[in-house]
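Before relying on records like the one below, remember that each one covers exactly one chain. Contacts with other chains, cofactors or solvent are not represented anywhere in the record.
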Amino acid sequence: MVDRGGQPQHRRRELRITSGRDQLEAGARRGGAGMSIAACAEIVAAGDPDRFRATMSGPVSAREKLLPLYAFNLEVARAPWVSQEPMIAQMRLQFWRDTLAGIAGGGPVPAHEVAAPLAGALHGAGLSPDTLDHIVVARWADVAREPFETEAALWDYLDATNGGLMWAGVAALGADKALEAPARALGRALGLANWLMAVAELRARGWAAWPSGDYAGLIARAGDDLATARAARFGAALPAARSAWRAPGVLNRARAHPDWIGTPRLAGAEAGARLRLIGVSLLRRW
């Protein structure tokens, strides 16, 4: 899903993104914080290309705050799946809880390529690590791989993981508390969209998280969350909100074609997705 280039009429946007990547790489050559941010950029580009594209459509100042958060999220999301041994997965999650506790206490952070830039991003934006800690705790569900018994339980999971990450990103870009509810709503909708694309893979890996297979109520609830987010004005925090750029299309397709859920068709055509991101970037929307 990494961007392989667009049509000639979109070269200007591609050049801006390439220029931003060059600035990050230049920081890496200078060493220090730039090197850490560049490492985060590589992690996000490889593991979360949708968020990477959205981030690179924003200003460099926003990228330096968002990329460490997104790299942290990837590390945490991967932790439950690195081993079939639950204890090993739990140890990896506990590492990140301990790292966040160290950041909160102002102490030294582990020698990890994401830990130092994460500490810098949190301290620089004046953010408490508590929201990120809730993300880690929620990922224990991925280790247990038990089905969600109620829609509310699944929504709580999406709120803690994707909703929490969206709020952290929006807050890192200067949003005040009034935007927490719409940011979390947008994150939950994005979380459901991503989850619907992944349900078949999750089931193959041993997690039948929603065994009923009835997704209509979930999709309707995500639609309500999108409406809440659309009523908000994210302002300078728009680059974080734009990480949900693919969610409306995915949810619309899931509503219209339930049989596409868990298949590659749900993601939509890649060329069309790229055009949507270019469009929302030019129009300063998400």
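Residues 8-144 form one domain.
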